[in-house]
Amino acid sequence: MKTAILAPVDKEFIVPKIICVGRNYVKHIQEMKAEATTRPLIFLKPSVAIVHPPGPIQLPNYSQDIHHEVEVVLLIGDTAKNIAERDALSVLAGVGVGIDLTARDVQAQAKKGGSPWTAAKAFDDSAPISHFLSTLHFGRLDRMELWLEVNGEIRQRGNTKDMIYGFPEIISYISTVMTLEEGDLIFTGTPDGVAPVHSGDLIRIGLDNQIEAEFIVE
Ligand code: MG
Known about the structure:
By secondary structure, this protein is an alpha+beta fold. The chain has helices at residues 26-31, 85-88, 104-113, 118-121, 167-177, and strands at residues 3-6, 11-14, 18-22, 41-45, 50-51, 66-68, 70-76, 92-99, 102-103, 127-128, 145-150, 153-159, 185-187, 195-196, 202-207, 211-216. The longest helix has 11 residues, at 167-177.
């Protein structure tokens, strides 16, 4: 199984599963012409979706419209089931940044048919991730800046203050559905500015002047 790296100690975590939150920033919901949800919208990616910098990221050949979605990613350090919001941050091992790569054309078809998003969201290389840092490296977790640029041009810039569901709510809610385990990753939703990526693109992502990562698209 693939791994996530907690720096600067270089501790390696095997990643059992990746849980992603959709529709967590109002402006992204608007650009998708979607509806907000009354509890976090969650879906899964497999461990094989992980790519470490610098890639390369290989895009699936069954889509003509792969979009980048930059997201804050949480690294879980402890088992949690039905954890209360007030205790939820205690299971965090680290925070990083990643890209929820999405086959938008395949997702649009699935939405129309009321089908699952698996082929649109869970393909190999659909989860490029940075290394992780403990929460001590950051100020307020609900005031983190995240950004993504493609070939030197800024495409997405957001702040966790604009999330509908904050990290404690997300962790607590997911733990009512499935047991969180050491090494699990949680993608916490994307701000607006999602756009296509193409073969040959150089993608850079960053979080709070603390983390940067760079990926090549093959
Ligand atoms: Mg997303």
